[in-house]
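[recover] target loaded
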C-alpha cells in the first residue's frame, strides 16, 4: 500500500481548484444518501491536497468508504487509465503500472485533467451568469461589473486551430486537450445521451447554456436534487425547442402587447399610463406562467404588480374589457360609485374565464394597490393563503400567486425581504410564488450603481434559496422557456422562484418625463433599438413560420378590436368602479337578490352557550395531559369564573371566538406572542376553523398590514385579527394602514373586516410601549366634526356603514366580547381598530357578568354612569367623559374623595364614528354639570383633538368641554416612573377639583 503514496502532489493543486469551485462541499451534503461518508479533515495541519490523496487511497481499499459520487468518479478515472492498452486491465494492474512509472505521471495527468474539466463545468454553473448577454441594449452589465471571472472561457470563436493555451491558465489544459474525450460527471447534463465529450464541445455547450441570453443563479441552493433539476432543464441539449404553433402564439401575444401600448399612445399621448414599452415580452411571459400552471392543475392565480404595465396586464392577461379601460381616460365621464376612486394604473380586477391553451377554467385576480412600491406583496400572499385555506389546498396545487416587481423597488424596499421571509413559515407559506422582475436597469432616473449595493436587484431572493433566472427580454423564446421552467419549479418544489426580465424603458418614468436629461447615453441607444416585436417577426418570417401578410393581418385584427372598444368606451353607463373589484364577495351584500337590511342583530348569546364555552376553556384537552402548574391555576380560575357567571378579558375573548366558531365563522389570530398572549393570557384551544399564529419573524409591515389584510380580503365570513405585542409596533406598517386599510373602500370599493388589536395604556413603562397612537387613527377617520347628524332609527348602523373604519377602546370584557361579534354580524365589513388594555387583563374590577353578554344584549357604544349620580342628576356638578383604562383610575379617585353624587363618569367605548346620539343624551341628562374630557395621554395625543370639535358641534358651542390630562409633549410617555406617577396624581386632582374651571372662558 506504500506504493500508492506515489500519487503526485499536482493532484493536490488540482484539488484546491476543485474545492474553490465548492464541489466537495456540495457533494458531501448530497441529500438522500446512506452509508459511510468521508468528510473534510478537521485537523489543522492536514492540507486539502493530502486530504484528496487520503480519500483516493481509502477508495482503493474500500470503495464504500467514500461518497458514491466520488466512488463513481474514481471508477471512471481508473477506466480511462486503461485507454490505449491492448487489453482492459484490472485496478490492481493499473496500480502496479503506476508504481513502475516514476511519479505515476500518466495516471495522475488523467485524474488531474478530469478534475480540471469537472471544475470547468462547475465554474460555468456557478459564474456563467456574470458574462451572459443579458442587456438588450448591449451597453450595460446586469451585475454592474464588466470583470470576467478567470475560470471562465468566453471566446468560443477562438476555439479553433489557432487555440491559445493561455486562455485556460486556471486549468493547466493544453491545445492537445481540446479534442480529447472526457468523461462527464453526474453533475451535468450537457452530454444528453452521451457520457463523454471533447473538451472543445464541452466548452461550446457550456457557453450556449450559461453565457448567452439566459443567466442562471442556482448553485447557492443547498439541495442537490433541486440543483440537478435545474441543470437538467437548461443543460440538456435541445430542450429549448418550440413548435411552429407555439411560435405563432408567442408572436400573436407580442402583437397584442405592443399594439395596445401603441394605441394608448396614439389616443392619449399627453396622459400618464406607465406603459410597458421596452418590456412588451412581459405579457407573453405572464401568460406562459399561467398556461403552464393551469396545465398542472392551478385554478386560481392571484397577482400583484406596480403601475408599469398594469393596464396592459389588465387588457391582455386578465382580459378585462378594453372599453372599461379606455373609459378611464375620458375626463368628461363621472363615476357613478361611492368613494374617491383611484387612478387607472392603481386599480385591480377579478375575472373567471377559460384558459384557451389548456381549455380549463381559471380565475385571475390582480390586487389593487397604490404607488407605494412593493406594498402589495404581502397583501397578495395573505389573499393567496386564505384562498388556499378555503379550498382545502394545503399544498398550493390549486391556488398560486405571481408577483411582478420593478428592479429598483425589489432591491430597495424592505417589505420584499419580509415577504420572502414569510414564504416558508407554516402559518404564512403559500407554497411558492413566481416573482417576475421588470428590470429596467434604472430606477426612475437613478443609475443602478447608485441605487443598490448588490450585484443584481434580485439578490434578496437568495436568502430563501430561490433560484434566479436572468433573461434578455429581447429574446422572446428564451423568456418563454424560462417562465415555463419557473412555473414547473414552483409546482415541483413548492418554493419561490425569480424571473429577472432584463429589459429597458423606452420612455421615461412616465410618458410626461424626458429621460434624455439624466440618461443620454442609454436613451440614444434606446432610440436606435429595434422593437422586440419587429425583431421576432423578422425572425419567424425568415424561417418560414409565418408570412409577412399573416403578420400584418394579426396587427390589423388587434387594431380593429381596440378601435371598436374605443367607440364603446364613450357610453357613460359603463364607468363603474365596481367593475374593478379584485375581491368580490358574491351573495354577501344581498339576500334573495335584494340588498341586505341595514340592521345589526343583538350580539349576545345564550347563557347555556356561555357556560359551555367557559367549561371548555377551563378543561384539559386530554385526561393524561400534563400541564404547567401555572396553567392549572389559570384553568381553575376560569372554571370558578364560569361557575360565578363572570368573565375576565381573556375569557371574554375566548367566548367571542368560540361562539363565532360554533356559528361556522373562521377565526384567524396572528401577531407577536398571540399563542400565549403578550401579557400571559391564554387564547382559545377550540376545535374547528380556528388558527392562532405566533409571528416570531417580527415582520410587522408584512404580517399585520399586508398579509392579514390580504387574508381578510378573501372572504367576509372570517374574523381575521392581528395583535401587536405593543400598540406602537404598528408604526412600521403605517404605509399599509394609510394606503390600504384606511382608504381601501374609498379608492377601490373594497370592504375589509380586518381587526387590529393594539395594546395601549400609560403605565409608566416608557415612551416605546405605552401608546398605540390613537390620534393617528382618529385623524384619518372620515366622519365630519362640523356636521350635525340627523338621528334616524338606524343611526348606529348607517353611521358604521358610512365610516372608513371603526375605532374602539373597550373598558370591559363584555364590550370587547360584543364588538368582536358585531364585526361579523354587521351586514357589511369595516376595519376595526381596538385599543386593548394591558393592566386591565388582570385588574380585579375589569370583570363582566354573564348578564351583560346573554341573548338580547349588544355592544354599548357609550356606557353611562350607573351609580349614585344618576339618582339625582340635577345635583351633579361635573360630568367626566373618558375612554379605556383611565376610567378605573377615575372611579377609584372619586370613591376616595367621596364624590359619587357630585361627579358622574361616562365612558366612550366607540370613539369613531363618534356616538353623537348617545353623547347628546348624556349631556342633556346632567344640565347643570360641567363637561370634562379626561384622558391619560398627553394633550396633543390621544382623543381630545378628535372629540372636542364634535362636542362643540353637538352642543351648538353653548357649553365648553374642558380638557383634563397630561400636558403636551414630544414623546408619548415618560421613561421615569416617578414622573409618571406625579403627572397621574396631577390630572386626577384636577379631575375632582370642582372649582378648577371657575371663571374660565372658552
Amino acid at each position: 500500500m506504500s506504493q500508492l503514496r506515489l500519487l503526485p502532489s499536482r493532484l493536490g493543486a488540482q484539488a484546491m481548484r476543485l474545492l474553490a469551485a465548492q464541489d466537495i462541499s456540495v457533494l458531501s451534503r448530497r441529500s438522500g444518501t446512506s452509508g459511510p461518508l468521508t468528510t473534510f479533515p478537521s485537523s489543522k495541519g492536514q492540507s486539502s491536497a493530502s486530504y484528496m490523496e487520503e480519500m483516493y487511497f481509502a477508495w482503493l481499499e474500500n470503495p464504500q468508504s467514500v461518497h458514491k459520487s466520488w466512488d463513481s468518479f474514481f471508477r471512471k478515472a481508473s477506466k480511462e487509465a486503461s485507454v490505449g492498452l491492448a487489453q482492459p486491465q484490472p485496478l490492481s494492474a493499473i496500480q502496479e503500472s503506476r508504481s513502475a512509472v516514476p511519479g505515476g505521471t500518466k495516471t495522475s495527468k488523467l485524474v488531474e485533467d478530469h478534475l480540471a474539466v469537472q471544475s470547468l463545468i462547475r465554474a460555468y454553473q456557478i459564474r456563467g451568469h456574470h458574462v451572459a448577454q443579458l442587456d438588450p441594449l448591449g451597453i450595460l452589465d446586469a451585475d454592474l461589473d464588466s470583470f470576467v471571472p478567470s475560470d471562465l472561457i468566453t471566446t468560443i470563436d477562438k476555439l479553433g486551430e489557432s487555440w491559445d493555451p493561455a486562455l485556460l491558465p486556471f486549468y493547466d489544459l493544453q491545445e492537445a486537450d481540446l479534442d480529447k474525450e472526457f468523461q462527464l460527471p453526474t453533475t451535468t447534463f450537457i452530454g444528453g445521451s452521451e457520457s463523454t465529450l471533447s473538451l472543445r464541445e464541452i466548452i461550446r455547450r457550456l457557453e450556449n447554456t450559461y453565457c448567452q441570453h439566459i443567466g442562471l443563479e442556482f448553485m447557492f441552493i443547498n439541495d442537490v436534487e433541486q440543483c440537478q433539476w435545474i441543470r437538467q432543464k437548461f443543460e440538456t441539449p435541445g430542450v429549448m425547442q418550440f413548435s411552429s404553433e407555439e411560435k405563432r402564439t408567442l408572436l400573436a401575444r407580442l402583437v397584442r402587447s405592443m399594439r395596445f401600448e401603441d394605441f394608448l399612445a396614439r389616443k392619449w399621448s399627453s396622459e400618464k399610463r406607465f406603459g410597458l414599452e421596452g418590456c412588451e415580452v412581459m405579457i407573453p411571459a405572464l401568460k406562459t406562467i399561467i398556461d403552464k400552471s393551469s396545465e398542472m392543475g392551478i385554478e386560481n392565480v392571484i397577482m400583484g404588480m406596480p403601475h408599469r404595465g398594469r393596464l396592459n396586464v389588465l387588457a391582455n392577461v386578465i382580459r378585462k374589457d378594453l372599453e372599461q379601460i379606455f373609459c378611464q381616460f375620458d375626463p368628461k365621464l363621472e363615476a357613478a360609485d361611492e368613494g374617491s376612486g383611484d387612478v387607472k394604473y392603481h386599480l385591480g380586477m377579478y375575472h373567471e374565464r377559460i384558459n384557451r391553451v389548456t381549455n380549463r377554467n381559471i380565475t385571475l385576480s390582480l390586487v389593487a394597490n397604490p404607488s407605494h412600491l412593493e406594498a402589495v406583496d404581502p397583501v397578495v400572499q395573505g389573499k393567496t393563503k386564505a384562498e388556499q385555506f378555503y379550498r382545502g389546498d394545503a399544498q398550493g396545487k390549486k391556488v398560486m400567486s405571481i408577483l411582478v416587481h420593478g428592479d429598483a423597488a425589489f432591491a430597495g424596499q424592505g417589505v420584499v425581504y419580509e415577504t420572502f421571509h414569510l414564504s416558508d413559515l407554516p402559518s404564512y407559506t403559500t407554497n411558492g410564488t413566481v416573482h417576475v422582475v421588470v428590470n429596467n436597469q434604472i430606477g426612475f432616473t437613478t443609475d443602478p450603481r447608485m441605487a443598490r449595493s448588490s450585484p443584481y436587484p434580485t439578490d434578496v431572493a437568495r436568502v430563501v434559496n430561490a433560484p434566479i433566472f436572468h433573461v434578455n427580454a429581447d429574446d422572446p423564446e428564451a423568456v418563454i422557456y424560462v417562465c415555463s421552467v419557473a412555473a414547473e419549479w414552483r409546482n415541483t418544489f413548492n418554493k419561490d422562484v425569480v424571473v429577472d426580465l432584463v429589459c429597458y424603458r423606452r420612455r421615461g418614468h412616465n410618458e410626461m418625463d424626458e429621460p434624455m436629461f439624466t440618461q443620454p447615453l442609454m436613451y440614444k441607444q434606446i432610440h436606435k433599438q429595434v422593437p422586440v416585436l419587429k425583431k421576432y417577426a423578422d425572425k419567424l418570417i425568415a424561417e418560414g413560420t409565418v408570412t409577412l401578410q399573416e403578420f400584418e393581418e394579426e396587427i390589423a385584427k388587434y387594431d380593429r378590436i381596440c378601435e371598436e372598444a374605443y367607440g364603446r368606451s364613450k357610453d357613460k353607463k359603463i364607468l363603474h368602479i365596481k367593475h374593478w373589484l379584485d375581491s368580490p364577495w358574491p351573495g354577501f351584500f344581498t339576500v334573495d337578490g335584494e340588498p341586505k337590511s341595514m340592521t345589526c342583530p343583538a350580539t349576545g348569546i345564550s347563557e347555556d352557550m356561555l357556560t359551555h364555552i367557559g367549561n371548555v376553556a377551563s378543561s384539559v384537552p386530554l385526561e393524561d395531559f400534563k400541564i404547567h402548574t401555572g396553567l392549572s391555576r389559570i384553568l381553575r380560575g376560569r372554571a370558578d369564573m364560569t361557575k360565578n357567571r363572570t368573565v375576565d378579558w381573556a375569557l371574554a375573548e375566548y367566548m367571542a371566538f368560540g361562539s363565532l366558531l360554533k356559528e361556522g365563522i373562521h377565526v384567524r389570530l396572528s401577531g407577536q406572542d398571540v399563542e400565549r398572549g403578550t401579557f400571559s393570557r391564554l387564547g382559545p384551544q377550540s376545535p374547528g376553523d380556528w388558527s392562532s399564529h405566533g409571528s416570531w419573524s417580527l415582520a410587522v409591515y408584512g404580517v399585520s398590514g399586508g398579509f392579514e389584510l390580504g387574508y381578510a380580503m378573501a372572504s367576509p365570513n372570517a374574523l381575521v385579527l392581528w395583535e401587536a405585542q405593543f400598540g406602537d409596533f404598528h408604526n412600521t406598517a403605517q404605509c399599509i394602514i394609510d394606503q390600504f386599510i384606511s382608504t381601501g373602500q374609498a379608492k377601490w370599493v373594497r370592504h375589509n373586516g380586518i381587526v387590529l388589536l393594539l395594546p395601549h395604556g400609560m403605565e409608566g413603562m416608557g415612551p416605546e410601549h405605552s401608546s398605540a397612537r390613537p390620534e393617528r387613527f382618529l385623524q384619518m377617520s372620515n366622519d365630519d366634526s362640523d356636521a350635525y347628524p340627523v338621528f334616524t332609527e338606524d343611526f348606529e348602523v348607517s353611521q358604521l356603514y358610512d365610516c372608513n373604519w371603526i375605532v374602539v377602546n373597550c373598558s370591559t370584557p363584555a364590550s370587547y366580547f360584543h364588538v368582536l361579534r358585531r364585526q361579523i354580524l354587521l351586514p357589511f365589513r369595516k376595519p376595526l381598530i381596538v385599543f386593548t388594555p394591558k393592566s386591565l387583563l388582570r385588574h380585579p374590577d375589569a370583570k363582566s357578568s354573564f348578564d351583560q353578554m346573554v341573548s338580547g344584549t349588544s355592544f354599548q357604544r357609550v356606557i353611562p354612569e350607573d351609580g349614585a349620580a344618576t339618582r339625582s342628576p340635577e345635583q351633579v356638578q361635573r360630568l367626566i367623559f373618558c375612554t379605556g383604562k383611565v376610567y378605573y383610575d377615575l372611579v377609584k379617585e372619586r370613591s376616595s374623595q367621596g364624590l359619587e353624587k357630585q361627579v358622574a363618569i361616562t365612558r366612550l367605548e366607540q370613539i369613531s364614528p363618534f356616538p353623537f346620539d348617545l353623547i347628546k343624551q348624556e349631556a342633556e341628562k346632567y344640565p347643570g354639570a360641567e363637561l370634562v374630557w379626561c384622558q391619560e395621554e398627553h394633550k396633543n395625543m390621544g382623543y381630545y383633538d378628535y372629540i372636542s370639535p364634535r362636542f362643540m358641534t353637538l352642543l351648538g358651542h353653548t357649553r365648553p368641554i374642558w380638557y383634563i390630562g397630561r400636558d403636551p409633549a414630544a414623546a408619548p410617555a415618560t421613561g421615569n416612573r416617578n414622573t409618571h406617577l406625579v403627572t397621574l396624581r396631577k390630572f386626577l386632582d384636577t379631575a375632582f377639583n370642582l372649582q378648577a374651571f371657575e371663571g374660565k372662558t372658552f
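[recover] notes: The longest strand covers residues 930-938.
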